[in-house]
């Protein structure tokens, strides 16, 4: 064991436990080889010989340094993966136990060493340890042949020494257990040859030690035994069934060498003479026999006879004539179809039997006529020749002279007769004789012939002629040929048996086998010697050409070729060019290359062999990871009738290329991970594999930077651990891309995405979407009216993010909050519990709490401001004058009243607020329509002209007071105006003017409060304006007295009021500087950061005032503009404003450029215009001819497109300005809008709320 003694796992108890395991009762020897720590984890190494199920491998818990009982408490366990499931940890003892048999061959195949890398986990805290279990080999696998019986075909003509490759056995074990040796059962024909080491790559072959004879033994059965090197040794066997392939080594043989046949001459054509039969002990085509005439047969024989080549039948094909030839000698050859073919010979002696088919022939060879009368007896008159071509009795001829005459026949020699005179002649008696010589043979029946002679003188007109050109008279007897001699030769001899029996045919006999490869041509000399004295001889040259037989198999240059080839080589790449030679000739020497029978099908798919060139090329895709080594068995086969083959083996070593990307396997994933997990918590276990080898197999892993995770490595195992703080709300899950890169050139890489979820803990309280909620609800709302939705979100998940809403306890005007509003716990919808009255309660606030469902729960609160919006639910109340249903209010006017005389002033109030409280006064009925008028806003009734002397004493008026609500409400009062000559001090009738003292005290209180508030606001406004004026103008380089402005924003009505005071640099005619005080009321969304911005806009319009502009007859107020016109004092219906004290009424003008626009001609002013120049153009409503001159400004105007009302007053520096002229109010519609406030603390919000309340009070 290699470890430091200071380490806890190397304490003596651990070491002693390791030693004690050597002598444990377990039968399997277990060795603890190493225990060491690496990086974040440790490693323990065990070695065991292919254990059975239940085998205890080692005390894992103790070797890891765990105390007794700690293994079960900390849940010591293995991470299961594949075959790792066959090993487990005993929970109680912490021992490493084999649950099912571990087979080294199944785990690792032929790889050595075979080690299982296990990941061991312990909890509290979670840690990973690496355990390596080496499984060593035992001899548990016997050698196995691919097949139990192997069939071999070996040609009979194979020469001794021929080698035939055999496929060896395989052994799944490794090392010495896989070292194989082979033995062969005894055989007189074969032996075993083994080349190379005694491993599975050794070359195994069968050697022929004795020539085979198929005809003697066609099949040989042998047993090949493979034994491994284990102890004890295991064996495997395979039976070799060797079939001897026939070679054409046997010539056909006839039953007899000479056949004798007799046949009658003149037999019919096609007559069967004889059927020959020959046998051949070979098989196949080597035993197929054809019959044909021998090489030396004469042409005459071929003409006279035919032979059936398949049946051996000899038949007559021409007329046989005994007289032409008495006998025939027919040589016959029986030839097999082998290559080369072999022949057997015989001789057919045909003897013809004569038949009487020829009549005697009588011919006159010589005739001497005329015969002298005095010729003596015995005189030869003619010579006759008599012959008969038949033989025997058929050829014996009897002759006579017919008719009787003085002539007779005398035989001179065989076949020759003389016609002689037997009696004296007497010419005078008989002057001429006709003599016929008749001949008759002895056949049965006999045939006759005759010839006549006439005494006619002969004419010598023919020269003698010989029957043939040359007559040879061969020697006979002992002088004829008596012997034949052959030149000395070890292969051939003469057979003279036929010659000695009278045949002219000699036989050349082969005594020893021929070898064409050694001598293709044999030259012989045949000598014929006669028996004369001295003897004479003749010679003939015999050339024997040795025909090739396929007796030599092709032979390769080498028995084994070794090549290296890069994987992924393209199809068609040349692997090796093989060369095999065959000394035979012709087709026997033509070599064809092919895969051997032992070449697996997979190899045949990956490689190809050119049958003619012997080039081995790549045919498929070579993958080093699939196979790093290939054995290709190639055979070279000739094209002989019985093909012979030579064999070689091509060993192809595949060179690895970096063509496989690393693969990352996720062994275990511990997800989700709590967001409060400590740094170093194991998240995932991974292993990486690369099917390449060498540097191509070395792999490194990495993850993107910036993640709260890290990788720890141990060999090819990796752990993904946390690093840093996790936050579920920032990232609920991580897709961690693990990149594996090998060390190849170029390097290859792959990626695997690991999805790690972060589990939530309740660490976030609910958060409201708004820091403060403002709700506007019209008064007189129904019960249960929806106010708003309070929305809070919790970034946590599940129950930690479930938010419920509630109202915090509190009181509003002495009553609990729940009596005013309610809120739904699940949705946050807030409802009104009662109907609100603006005049009673204008605003209040409640606190809403949002709480999640986590453990423990977290909560937060938000303030909700509820504003009650006024509705027009109060009609105007006329305080003065008052009238009843029975009497009108009485007012008096002197008869001397001038035009504009104030008759009375209608005093009215409205219980509503805002524009609902804006009051307008109208004369709805008068007895003299042209005499009185009433101010729209003030309610002052004045005379329009001076009363005449003849005026009626009383006038009846009806005044209606309307508010500005939607719809508007009104009240009216009837007034009787009495004309008196003199107005004295009149005490009004209190009964008409006042209903009750309590009402007047209440109204008075309201007026006092309102006036006091307005006074204070006005005072603070003047002070503020002065301060802002100095500050603002100091920013633009102006003096403090040059002008000032203030910007006040109203939160409730969403309007901005800007008051700008401007002092012109040019002095007026009286020598004083003119001062302008301009008030702007800007709608929501229109902003100026300072008065200077507004003044810059006015400067842009100054050029438009230099020339008078014609009014726009189509001028009118737009709907939006009409809604934006606001004033508490100077607003007139249809835009009519009051002029100066002595000036006439005029319409409220608008400011614009010279270009008319739709909706009242509203345009934007030119850029750069200002107020101190004549650049403004003011337009009045239709029907008014008043136009201002250049540079003349009205006291009120508006800017089209904006609801702003601009008030301009030119006053002396020390004059007192009516500040109420510049007080404006926001629109009713705008007050109903919800204004979204910026986030801020509650103090600032309350301060802004206070400012808004103050502004409302001011207005």
UniProtKB/TrEMBL annotation:
Main function: Potential calcium-dependent cell-adhesion protein. May be involved in the establishment and maintenance of specific neuronal connections in the brain.
Extent of Basic and acidic residues compositional bias: 1218-1232
Residues spanning the membrane: 1005-1028
Domain Cadherin, first and last residues per copy: 89-145, 146-254, 255-362, 363-466, 472-556, 557-664, 665-768, 769-878, 893-990
Gene Ontology CC terms, in alphabetical order: plasma membrane
Alphabetized UniProt keyword annotations: Calcium, Cell adhesion, Cell membrane, Glycoprotein, Membrane, Repeat, Signal, Transmembrane, Transmembrane helix
Species, as recorded: Malurus cyaneus samueli
Matches recorded under SMART domains: CA
Membrane topology designation: Single-pass type I membrane protein
Highest taxon in the source lineage: Eukaryota
GO molecular function terms listed in the Swiss-Prot or TrEMBL record: calcium ion binding
Annotated stretches, region: Disordered: 1136-1259
Keyword Nucleotidyltransferase: no
Organism lineage string: Eukaryota, Metazoa, Chordata, Craniata, Vertebrata
Name this polypeptide is given: Protocadherin gamma-C3
InterPro entries to which the protein is assigned, alphabetical: Cadherin-like_dom (IPR002126), Cadherin-like_sf (IPR015919), Cadherin_C (IPR032455), Cadherin_CBD (IPR031904), Cadherin_CS (IPR020894), Cadherin_N (IPR013164), Protocadherin/Cadherin-CA (IPR050174)
Any matching Pfam family: Cadherin_2
Record GO biological process: homophilic cell adhesion via plasma membrane adhesion molecules
Main location: membrane
Localization per record: Cell membrane
């Amino acid at each position: 064991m290699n470890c430091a003694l200071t380490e806890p796992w190397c304490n003596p108890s651990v070491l002693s436990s390791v030693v004690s395991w050597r002598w444990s009762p377990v039968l399997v020897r277990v060795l603890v080889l190493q225990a060491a720590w690496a990086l974040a984890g440790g490693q323990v190494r065990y070695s065991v010989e292919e254990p059975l199920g239940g085998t205890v491998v080692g005390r894992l818990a103790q070797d890891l340094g765990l105390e007794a009982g700690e293994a079960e408490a900390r849940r010591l366990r293995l991470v299961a993966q594949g075959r790792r499931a066959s090993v487990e940890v005993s929970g109680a003892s912490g021992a490493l136990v084999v649950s099912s048999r571990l087979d080294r061959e199944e785990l690792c195949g032929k790889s050595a060493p075979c080690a299982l890398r296990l990941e061991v986990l312990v909890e509290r805290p979670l840690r990973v340890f690496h355990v390596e279990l080496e499984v060593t080999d035992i001899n548990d696998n016997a050698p196995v042949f691919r097949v139990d019986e192997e069939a071999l075909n070996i040609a009979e003509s194979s020469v001794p020494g021929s080698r035939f490759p055999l496929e060896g056995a395989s052994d799944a074990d490794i090392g010495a257990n896989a070292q194989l040796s082979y033995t062969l059962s005894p055989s007189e024909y074969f032996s075993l040859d083994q080349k190379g080491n005694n491993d599975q790559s050794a070359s195994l072959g069968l050697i022929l030690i004795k020539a085979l004879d198929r005809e003697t033994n066609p099949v040989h059965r042998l047993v090949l035994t493979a034994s491994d090197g284990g102890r004890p040794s295991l064996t495997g066997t395979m039976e070799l069934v060797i079939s001897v392939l026939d070679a054409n080594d046997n010539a056909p043989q006839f039953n007899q060498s000479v056949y004798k046949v007799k046949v009658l001459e003149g037999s019919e054509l096609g007559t069967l003479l004889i059927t020959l039969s020959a046998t051949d002990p070979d098989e196949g085509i080597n035993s197929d026999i054809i019959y044909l005439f021998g090489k030396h047969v004469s042409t005459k024989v071929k003409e006279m006879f035919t032979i059936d080549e398949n049946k051996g039948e000899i038949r007559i094909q021409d007329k046989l004539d005994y007289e032409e030839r008495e006998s025939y000698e027919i040589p016959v050859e029986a030839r097999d179809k082998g290559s080369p073919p072999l022949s057997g010979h015989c001789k057919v002696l045909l003897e013809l039997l004569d038949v009487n088919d020829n009549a005697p022939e009588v011919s006159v060879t010589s005739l001497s006529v005329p015969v002298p009368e005095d010729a003596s007896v015995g005189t030869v008159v003619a010579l006759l020749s008599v012959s008969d071509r038949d033989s025997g009795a058929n050829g014996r001829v009897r002759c006579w002279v017919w008719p009787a005459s003085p002539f007779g026949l005398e035989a001179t020699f065989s076949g020759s007769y003389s016609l002689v005179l037997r009696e004296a002649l007497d010419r005078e008696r008989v002057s001429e004789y006709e003599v016929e010589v008749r001949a008759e043979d002895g056949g049965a029946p006999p045939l006759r012939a005759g010839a006549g002679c006439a005494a006619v003188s002969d004419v010598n007109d023919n020269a003698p002629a010989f029957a043939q050109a040359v007559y040879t008279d061969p020697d006979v007897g002992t002088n004829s040929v008596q012997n034949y001699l052959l030149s000395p030769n070890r292969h051939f001899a003469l057979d003279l048996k036929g010659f000695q029996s009278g045949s002219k045919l000699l036989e050349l006999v082969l005594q020893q086998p021929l070898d064409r490869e050694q001598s293709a041509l044999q030259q012989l000399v045949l000598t014929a010697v006669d028996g004369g004295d001295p003897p004479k001889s003749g010679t003939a040259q015999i050339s024997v050409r040795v025909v090739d037989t396929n007796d030599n198999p092709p032979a390769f240059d080498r028995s084994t070729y070794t090549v290296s080839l890069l994987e992924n080589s393209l199809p068609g790449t040349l692997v090796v060019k093989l060369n095999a030679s065959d000394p035979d000739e012709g087709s026997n020497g033509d070599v064809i290359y092919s895969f051997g029978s032992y070449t697996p099908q997979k190899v045949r798919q990956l490689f190809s062999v050119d049958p003619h060139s012997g080039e081995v090329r790549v045919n498929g895709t070579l993958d080093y990871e699939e196979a790093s080594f290939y054995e290709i068995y190639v055979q070279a086969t000739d094209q002989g009738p019985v093909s012979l083959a030579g064999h070689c083996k091509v060993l192809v070593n595949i060179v690895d290329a970096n063509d496989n990307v690393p693969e990352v396997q996720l062994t275990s994933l511990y997800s989700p991970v709590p967001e409060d997990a400590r740094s170093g918590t194991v998240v995932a276990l991974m292993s990486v594999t690369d099917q390449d080898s060498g540097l191509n197999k070395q792999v490194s892993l990495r993850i993107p930077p910036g993640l709260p995770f890290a990788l720890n490595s141990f060999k090819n195992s990796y752990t993904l651990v946390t690093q840093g703080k996790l936050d579920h709300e920032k990232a609920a899950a991580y897709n961690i891309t693990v990149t594996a890169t090998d060390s190849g050139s170029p390097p290859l890489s792959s990626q695997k995405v690991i999805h790690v979820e972060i589990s939530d803990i309740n660490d976030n309280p609910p958060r409201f979407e708004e820091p403060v909620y403002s709700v506007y609800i019209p008064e007189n709302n129904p019960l249960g009216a929806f106010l708003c939705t309070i929305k809070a979100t919790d970034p946590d998940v599940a129950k930690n993010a479930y938010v419920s809403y509630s109202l915090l306890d509190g009181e509003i005007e002495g009553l609990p909050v729940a009596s005013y509003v309610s809120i739904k716990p699940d949705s946050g919808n807030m409802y009104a519990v009662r109907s609100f009255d603006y005049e009673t309660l204008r605003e209040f606030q409640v606190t809403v709490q949002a709480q999640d469902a986590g453990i423990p729960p977290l909560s937060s609160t938000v303030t909700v401001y509820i504003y009650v919006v006024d509705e027009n639910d109060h009609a105007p109340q006329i305080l003065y004058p008052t009238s009843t249903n029975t009497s009108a209010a009485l007012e008096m006017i002197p008869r001397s009243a001038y035009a504009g005389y104030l008759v009375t002033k209608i005093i009215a109030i409205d219980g509503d607020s805002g524009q609902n409280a804006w009051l307008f006064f109208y004369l709805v009925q008068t007895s003299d329509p042209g005499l009185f008028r009433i101010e729209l806003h003030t309610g002052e009734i004045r005379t329009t002209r001076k009363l005449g002397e003849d005026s009626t004493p009383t006038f009846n008026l009806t005044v209606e007071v309307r508010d500005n609500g939607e719809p508007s409400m009104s009240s009216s009062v009837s007034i009787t105006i009495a004309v008196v000559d003199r107005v004295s001090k009149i005490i009004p009738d209190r009964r008409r003017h006042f209903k009750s003292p309590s009402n007047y005290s209440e109204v008075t209180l309201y007026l006092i409060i309102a006036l006091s508030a307005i006074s204070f606001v006005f005072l603070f406004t003047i002070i503020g304006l002065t301060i802002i004026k100095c500050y603002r103008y100091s920013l633009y380089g102006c003096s403090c007295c040059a002008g000032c402005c203030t910007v006040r924003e109203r939160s409730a009505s969403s309007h901005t009021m800007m008051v700008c005071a401007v002092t012109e640099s040019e002095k007026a005619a009286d020598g004083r500087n003119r001062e302008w005080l301009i008030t702007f009321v800007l709608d929501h969304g229109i902003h100026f950061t300072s008065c200077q911005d507004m003044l810059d806009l006015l400067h842009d319009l100054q050029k438009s005032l230099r020339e008078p502009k014609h009014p726009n007859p189509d001028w009118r107020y737009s709907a939006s503009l009409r809604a934006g016109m606001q004033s508490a004092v100077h607003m007139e219906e249809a835009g009519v404003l009051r002029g100066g004290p002595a000036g006439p009424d005029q319409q409220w003008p608008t400011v614009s450029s010279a270009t008319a626009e739709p909706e009242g001609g509203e345009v934007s002013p030119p850029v750069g215009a200002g107020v101190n120049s004549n650049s403004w153009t003011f337009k009045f409503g239709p029907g008014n001819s008043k136009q201002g001159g250049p540079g003349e400004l009205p006291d009120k105007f508006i800017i089209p497109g904006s609801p702003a009302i601009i008030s301009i007053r030119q006053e002396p520096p020390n004059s007192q300005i009516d500040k109420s002229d510049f007080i404006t109010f926001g629109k009713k519609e705008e007050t109903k809008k919800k204004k979204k406030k910026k986030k801020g603390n509650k103090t600032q919000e309350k301060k802004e709320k206070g400012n808004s309340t103050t502004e409302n009070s001011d207005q």
